[in-house]
Structures are given as C-alpha cells and as structure tokens.
C-alpha cells in the first residue's frame, strides 16, 4: 500500500508583510505584485524570460513534515511544548516573504494544468513550491511542495500563499 505523505502549514502574519511589501533598490521603490495571466502574457509577448524574475510568497509559512517513520522528539516542559533541535532542523521548514525563489518550470497548459514550480534554498535543502492557477482570483496559489525530492501535499485551515514578484508598479 502506498503511503500518503502530508505536510502541515502554519502561517505567521506580521502586519501586512508580503502582499505589497516595499524594498529600496537603486533609489526606486519596488512593490510585490501577484503573478497573474496578464503579467505572464506581457513578459512572454515582449520576448523576456520568466526565469529572469525573482519569485516570493505572499505570506510567511512554516512547513512541518509529517513523516510516520520519524520518532517525535519533543516534551512538555512547564506547560510548553518543546521540540528538540534535531527535530526542528530535520522536520521544520520556515520560508519567509524575503526568501528568493527561482523558476524551475512554468506549465503553460490552461486546460489541463497551468502553474509554476519555484525552487528555494532553505536551511541547506532544496524546496520546490508548486503553484497552480486560480481562475477565480487570477493568481497562482501554493498547493504542494517537493522537499529534497519527496512530494508533500499541503493542507491549511486558511488560504495558502500566492506567488509574487517585485515590480515598480504602484498598485495603490
């Protein structure tokens, strides 16, 4: 029987971090804008390349890998759930809105699947975040991850992060 691997997502919302975060770059203000079909079409029609962009997530996230082969290394100490350093370094992946991802694959199949595989180097391991097109909101939403070559389905009680890029567009 094939075992299903699942990862749990926890979001940390710090103010309005992520959705329209601003950075200074060569005295120009950059804004984070969501990737949508219009932006993709604009880039591809102008013969520019999607792999030249830096990619970000809209909200910080924490992926806790739920692996049945791992013995939990935690204890409750003075009412606090304490995980061992070994567990934290091997089973917990923290990705914030400033981690820069690079395009691995863009799937251009609007009828079947349209999406992005974006690779991040986090805590010494490669993490590929997979985003699929959300036709209702015209954006690309996170739906799974590949961590060191193993696929994980992602679950959350709240909406998962969306794919963002930097631009000098002012959306206010």
Order of helices and strands: EEEHEEEEHEEEEEEE
Number of domains: 1
The computed structural class is: mainly beta
Average pLDDT rating: 80
Please provide the count of β strands: 14
Q: What is the beta-strand fraction? A: over 45%
Please state how the strands of the largest beta sheet are arranged side by side. Answer: 8-5-1-13-12-11-10-9
Q: How large is the radius of gyration? A: 18 Å
Largest sheet: 8 strands, mixed
Q: Pick out the low-confidence regions.
A: 10-27
Q: How far apart are the first and last residues' alpha carbons, in Å?
A: 52 Å
Task: Spell out the key features of this protein.
single chain; 172 residues; mainly beta; eight-stranded mixed sheet; 2 helices; 9% helix; 50% strand
Describe the protein.
The protein is elongated. With 172 residues, the chain is mainly beta. The strands form 3 sheets. The protein has an 8-stranded mixed sheet. It has a 4-stranded antiparallel sheet with strand order 2-3-14-4, with no helix packed on it. It has one domain.
Give a short summary of the structure.
By secondary structure, the chain is mainly beta. The chain is built from 2 helices and 14 strands; from the N terminus they run E-E-E-H-E-E-E-E-H-E-E-E-E-E-E-E.
Secondary-structure topology with pairs:
Elements: E1 6-11, E2 22-25, E3 28-34, H1 37-45, E4 55-57, E5 61-66, E6 74-77, E7 80-83, H2 85-91, E8 92-95, E9 102-109, E10 113-122, E11 125-134, E12 139-147, E13 150-155, E14 163-167
Parallel strand pairs: 1-13
Antiparallel strand pairs: 1-5, 2-3, 3-14, 4-14, 5-8, 6-7, 9-10, 10-11, 11-12, 12-13
